[in-house]
Amino acid sequence: IDTDQIPVEKLGKSELDMQQYRKAFGTCRIPGLPGDTMEFHPDSKHIAIVVNEVFFKVPVYDENGNILGENQLQEQIKTCIAAAGNQKPVKIGVLTSDNRDNWAKAYQELIKNKTNRQSLSEIQKSLFVLAIDREIPQITDDITTAEHTLVTGAGSTRNSGNRWYDKTIQFVVGTSGINGLTYEHSPAEGGPISIMSDFIIKNVKEQEEGKAQTINGTGSFEQPTLLSFNSSPDIDESIKTASLNIDKLAADIDMGYLHFTDFGKNFIKTQKFSPDSFIQMAIQFAFYRLHHVPGAHYESAGTRLFVHGRTECIRSCSKESVAFARAMVESRDDQEKLQKLKAAIESHKKYVTQAVQGLGIDRHMLGLKLIAKENGIPVPELYNDEGYVKSSTYRLSTSQVASVYDAFMCYGPLTNDGYGCCYSPRNNDIYFGLSSMNSNAETSTDKFKQSLKEALQPFRS
Asked: Angle formed by the axes of helices 100-110 and 114-125, to 10°?
């Protein structure tokens, strides 16, 4: 994608900051103590391919500076697959899945070795990572298997080590046909990544339909280079620890999805409701009817009206949303339910407007806390107050990341007793990527999925 050719997005008449598109490629998070750093390599001419936990530097431009054609890229990939079969890998990739402090300590040990430093540098400088996965047993169905594959790699004996989780963009292709991407959140939000994904899918479909031609190349180009790593007893121990930790997480996280087909955003608009606010209230109601308490509820709001704008928190759980959920459970009066739904939606819309204009409270409070830490000022007691801590602990972590295709994003819950819920409203249906933790007896992805479906269905009638 030529990021310089992307048309400027707008919110109403206001242009949005577009820097996240530019930083999607050539960016890598670098582990460190006390905190990580970011590297950006916009002029990179290669990608990194990992096959069976073996890494390669793969040039994607020919000798004349042209992007390689599809035939040439296929040749590069096949070369990597063949070469990987002859290597016994040092399972470095799994380290990137571990706790950031653990990874930072292992990283310092790795870079003591010159070969390791060079290989790490080539991965970090790459435009993106392409992971060619080994096949894994099906988990429930193909889509749920894909969710596990893309979020955790499904464990260290499967594909968790066939990753470099520090790279912003990491395309994953499985031998069974599973494909998608895993992305590191630091440089970009889900929206720009989803638009990039739609661009790719659109191009593939147009080729399949004969509306676009395959671009083949004829120029000479460099072959892939094996990226070698040397281990040590300390590195081996770090790999063992990271493998145990990702295996626990992969076994604990309970992924699922709901493809709701009764209606989509077109129907919601006919009722003169904001589709996002309506869906947010349905999520709040689904949680309430399942757990019989309101759910502290986070939704991401973009602040790209501002230069370098990222996100603000929309606190979707309000007095109005709780009143609506209670009415849906307790009232027999449909008019009362409708009025409380309208009030809840209006309350949510007002908060959204404030959040995108930079008038939310959460990023402001975070900024003050970080300023105190960076300047050696004691962090105010407010941040340890029981009410503040509780108000910043979200059992519902939600985000709208829209796609025009049969695609959706998913992630894990923010808390052990919570749910992840990322949704893509389309014209006539809605996709929800869902998650919870198996280790928590109170939550269940399947039960939440059913509650969400039942929370939405009455509105069609």
From this structure: 130
